[in-house]
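Could you help me review a protein record that somebody else here produced? What it holds is a sequence and that sequence's fold in C-alpha cell form. I need someone to confirm that the C-alpha cell line plausibly describes how this chain folds. Take the sequence as given and treat only the C-alpha cells as open to question. This is what I was given:
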Amino acid sequence: MNFPQIQIRTTDARLGLNIDDPKQMIRQPKATQHIEQPAAIVDIETTRGLMKIDSSQARRDVGLIGPLESTKKYASEGRQKVMQGIARRASEGRQMMDIAHNSNAIASIAKKNTFPTKAKLGIDFIPSIGSVKLDYTPAKVDINVQIQHAKINAQVNKPIHEYTPGNVSGFMLLNPSIEIDFIV
C-alpha cells in the first residue's frame, strides 16, 4: 500500500547589505601663544670713594713749609742767632777786659772764630714715620633690581570635529520560498 507523501522544499531568504562607512575627521589646531619677557629694571647708585692724604707734617719734616710758617721759623732762628751773637760778643768783650789777667785772650778768641763747629752728618730729607696721614672712605654701591615677570598669552583652539554618519541599507538577494508537493 502506498501512502500519500508530502514533500516540502524551502529556500532560505538571503539578505544583502549596502554599508556606507561613517567618516570622522578630528584636527587639533596648535594653541596660539605669545610670550614676552620685559627686561628687568636695574638701578645702580654709586658713591665715590674718597681718599684724603695730608702730607703737611712730612713736608715740614723735610723743610718744605709754607710762607707764613717759614717766616715765623726764620724769624725765630734769626732771633736765636742774634741772641747767640750778642752773648758771644759779650763773652769776648769780658775776655778782652781781663786781658791783663789772661794774656792769651786774643789768640783763644781767634781760634774759636777761625774753626767753625763741625756740621752734623745725617739724612735730613726723610720725613718721620707716620707723618703722612691717610683717610679713606670706601666707595658704596647700591644695586636695586625690579624683576619684570614674563607676559604669557595663550589661546587654546578647540578641536575641529567633522562627522558623517554611516548608512546601512538592506535588500533581498533571494526571496524565501516554500514548495509543497503531494506524491500519491
About this structure: The chain has a mean pLDDT of 87. Helices lie at 56-61, 67-97, 105-114.
